Amino acid sequence: MLGYRNIHGSLEDKNIIFGIDASFNENEDSFDPYLVKFTKTSRILKLTNNTMAINETDWSGQNVDQIIIYGHSLGEADYSYFQSIFDSVNLYHSSTQLVFAYSIYDSDRMEEIETTYETAVEKLMTRYGQSFSNQNHGRNLLHKLLLEGRIQIRLTSSEIE
After folding, report:
1. CA-closest candidate to residue 139, choices 147, 148, 127
2. Which tens digits make up the pLDDT trace of 103-149?
3. For residue 98, what are the β-bridge partners?
4. Closest-CA residue to 155 (of 119, 120, 123, 110)
5. Which residues of 74-110 are buried (b: 16+ CB within 10 A; e: fewer)?
6. 3-state class of 92 per DSSP?
7. Which residues of the chain have a pLDDT value below 50?
8. Does residue 21 contact residue 82 with C-beta atoms inside 8 Å?
9. Half-sphere exposure of residue 124: CA atoms within 13 angstroms, side-chain side
10. CA-CA distance, 122 to 133, in Å (whole number)?
């Protein structure tokens, strides 16, 4: 079954989600209960009263052949989403493929856009690898995915003509 989730909400459903990542607030010494309401996690939780459109998807990680991430900056503010998704499919040991798709939105900056996106994918995978208890697996995650043909960076068909 093909499923999807717009992690930033949907303009059509009038539930756009802006905020900060909750990981900044993980340390007990610096925990700020007043900032929690500004996290994306908190904002999504508030939308769980069936107002948030989520296509029927099995996010337990079973039978997920491919994850396509499109139109995403892959920034630090969304890291916890990616970590949860990658953990749920047991990315290191599974056969799940990752496709990072992007578009060229300014033909004068094509090379810059490509380089920036490639760097963001590398940073995301490196950061995710650092979360592994087996640091050897963490350090070789990107190499493993490349060798197994399970990671791609793909320019979408909406290329600048």
Report:
1. 127
2. 998 989 999 999 999 999 999 999 999 999 999 999 999 999 999 99
3. 67, 151
4. 110
5. beebbbbbbbebbebbebbeeebbbebbbebeeeeee
6. coil
7. 1, 50-56, 58, 159-161
8. no
9. 26
10. 20
d(CA 37, CA 18): 11
Q: Which two tokens stand for residue 134?
A: 């087996």
Strand arrangement, sheet containing 97-102: 66-70, 97-102, 151-155
Residue type, 25: N
CA distance 71 to 89: 21
Q: Give 133's contacts (C-beta < 8 A, 6+ positions apart).
A: none
How far, in Å, CA of 67 to CA of 58, rounded? 12
108 — phi, psi (to 5°)?
A: -75, -15
Q: At what angle are helices 110-129 and 79-88 packed, to 10 degrees? A: 60
